[in-house]
Protein 1
Amino acid sequence: MVLPRSFYLQPTLVVARRLLGKVLVHDGPQGRVAGRIVETEAYRGPADRAAHSRGGHRSSRNEVMYGPPGHAYVYFIYGMHHCVNVVTQPRDVPEAVLLRALEPVAGTALMRARRGLDDGPEWRLCRGPGALCRACGIDRALNGADLVRGPLRILDAPEIPPSAVRRTPRIGVAYAGPDAMRAWRFVVAASPAVSGPSRSRRE
DNA sequence: TGAATGATTTACT
DNA sequence: GTAAATCATTCAA
């Protein structure tokens, strides 16, 4: 079952937490790929100095964040990568959740072809926001796509138990200062697919 | 008009 | 550990 639009009207931190375990599906021209979400980050509107909507800034790039909930915000970064977000909150409230990692569950052959990884473990295919988009064939053509009706959807799945979830500061936003370093990143602790420093180094 | 930089990944020392 | 790849967006002038 596809997650209903009301799911995306919950507080953004709640959406980020509850997206763990859900399944992202993309039906593209080359076939279907799907993965279980194991890492997310919340980005919270004008007051969040790490968000593209900081200061209430509005542009052609982040316009989708100001639109209705349950749509995809896809942007291009570092001259070579795409990142995909889920827009939360009603129209004109620019908040979103960045999808950072998936565990592949379908279409792994297509993911390998797109990533150019003929061998190696599956959990590497969608590890990190740029890698995830590459493997799933997500680019700016999907910016603004409706996650409830379109070719890119998120399916419901059982909740991850609290004991399996970790909260950490977000990755790559130190430039935005201490306020941006609150624990707005959510990960399934046991998953090998989560990005960032290895568990052995973290613990 | 021009310069700086980023919600990254990968390879290399 | 550091660096290169590579460009849309942003900000200063």
Note: The beta strands of chain A are 23-28, 31-44, 72-77, 81-88, 95-106, 152-155, 165-168, 185-188.
Protein 2
Amino acid sequence: MPELPEVEVVRRGLERHVAGRTIGAVSVLTARSVRRHAAGPQDLVTRLVGRRLGSARRRGKYLWVPLDDAAPHRAGEALLAHLGMSGQLLVRPAAAPAERHLRVRVRLDDGNELRFVDQRTFGGLAVVRLAASADDGAPVPEPVTHITVDPLEASFDLDAVTGRLRRRRTGVKRALLDQTLVSGVGNIYADEALWRARMHYARPTETLRRAEVVRLVDAVRTVLVEALDDGGTSFDALYVDVNGRSGWFDRSLAVYGQADRPCPRCGTPVRRDQFMNRSAYTCPRCQPRPRRGRW
DNA sequence: ATCGTAGCCTGGAGGC
DNA sequence: TGCCTCCAGGCTACGA
């Protein structure tokens, strides 16, 4: 499940393998994978062919590559990608056999292809215009303007996030998953950060003391950075491994997916709860359920 | 305005 | 073996 660290790994790969390349033929094999491109697959192809790929950028779980062009009416466009649940961006020789869930091929001028592969088609590609972020005013793709600065960005404002979090009236995990409050965190890193901060997911945000919020947001940042350090070592495999394997599934996780296994801190068996039609993993001893919990 | 939920989607796992 | 059900979850749209 690509969350911020995994998407950042992909961004670095794009930076290394496709920046500066010019796009040749583009082929959309699954229209659903470009459904966010409002004008349709053919328009997406037209807007991509002949463009030069710039330096890959990321905010939260969104990834984009600016499209340079001499044509002024096309200035300020970018190829936007969201990996959803199962999306991958692979760079492969154009002649390499198609992957099982290959959705979009983008031919490059160096004999390679940028390939969007996505089993469950929650992710997708689009060509969109850049606009000012509602949060910090930075140029981001139009569909990303509502996504807040993520914890790894230089402009990340701990005080601002602390304030916004404390003004919420909801459970703390719900808040962490809200990409307008803090971006880049999904189910895995929310659970890992809550465990690190020794906080239960149902803790009502309005009962959080300022110091607790700081501790939590620090835990979020630490968890993301550590995951990135782990993933970063194997990221190139994404682009050269014949299987296109990412290697981000075998990271060491304290609680996520660890039901009944011992908490690394105290040995108590990790518990799995139903939460938002999904799962929440906690150590029942390190993260006791609050008396007045809020989902 | 804010909060909470349904639905999108496919393949692997496990029960019978 | 094969059929069935459950489960994974980021995001948007929509209802309360």
Note: The mean pLDDT of chain A is 87.
Protein 3
Amino acid sequence: MTDQQSVESHETREKILATASRLFSEQGYDSTSLSQVAREARVSKALIFWHFDSKEKLYHIAVRKTLEPYFIDVAALAGLDEPAQVARLIDQFYDFVHDNVYSVRFFLSLTVQSEGQPDEVLSRVNELYRVFRNSLVSVIDRGRARGVFPPSIDPPRDAALIMASLAGILVQQFVNDGSTPVAKDLIEHLKITVFQRLTGSAAGSPLAGRP
Amino acid sequence: MTDQQSVESHETREKILATASRLFSEQGYDSTSLSQVAREARVSKALIFWHFDSKEKLYHIAVRKTLEPYFIDVAALAGLDEPAQVARLIDQFYDFVHDNVYSVRFFLSLTVQSEGQPDEVLSRVNELYRVFRNSLVSVIDRGRARGVFPPSIDPPRDAALIMASLAGILVQQFVNDGSTPVAKDLIEHLKITVFQRLTGSAAGSPLAGRP
DNA sequence: GTCTATATACAGATAGAC
DNA sequence: GTCTATCTGTATATAGAC
């Protein structure tokens, strides 16, 4: 086993993995054949089995790879007041979706299709979603405790509704037929609505222009 | 061709169609084999081809059948004022989803997966969605014209955001892991938020208890 | 490690008896 | 109309040469 062999093997393995990740994300598990992966990665089918044993194992490893860039940047909230933190979280969600359209779409379709069987991949996705929502609850709760938001608001429900709106904007984006306002527009409108809801201020107050 | 034969043929055809509708909705097109449809409908594969020519035609006919109960009841809005009409539309959406969980889930997954190729089925689903949103825009617009809602609101954007929230609540329902508030709860919270947004009233005003 | 050749299973679809 | 038997293609996976 020479170094040269090791390196080449590693690169080929990665090439297969990258190709598989892309194809699974674009087409789903069933509709992606190993023949196609082999063709587009320019290797033989047999080599895929040598590296990954089975289609299912390849899939799981490829999906994990796709999930790698998924994380939440809590540090970016430091130094902002609560309304600005809420706005920042909303923007973070949008930017993340925007930067990962293909894979987000893929995981969304997985989520919608799965019949509630526990799935390792989905539980990881759900965890990220839950963490994000919990950040939102915390910020809103803190704002209420500090008197920035009125006591009449309901942090868990308001957070869940904001998350639903974000998820819905995401879905509409995938539908888009031209008659729906574009996502970026709706995000701005959501921030205005949320600001109004959380502070009780008059309509049209700009949350948008904040630092 | 006796009547007896006609009737039996019709029943068998319907049995195949019902089985196919269910399996396609639960598993999708690729993951549903005609062998499975034949087995569960207790007929031979050949009979499926005799009745429907091909898997693709069976699919299209089965999907149309699934779409049959999809419609929007505009008559139910008569005699209500605008805020109540908005609330009624929101409730209608929720009830509809609740009554058609399986097929709604199926069409949602179709929508999310499709890569924007024009699809006869999806365009029908999109049309229903668009009609529903347009009803919402009309109601909000009329309310604004009549001075029930302030001029500062933005009917197309507000309607689109409400639709996004509804779609998002729908998606969250499919995810639900127990940590998210239940859909019915969020629907009520959405109505409160919308009422507040559209009328500029203080937090907590009940839109819920309206006729 | 990487290939070609092959085994095996099952998909969609057809032929033809009844 | 409904069946059994079969065709043809392609899928996952294996064997074995290099």
Note: The two ends of chain A are 56 Å apart (CA to CA).
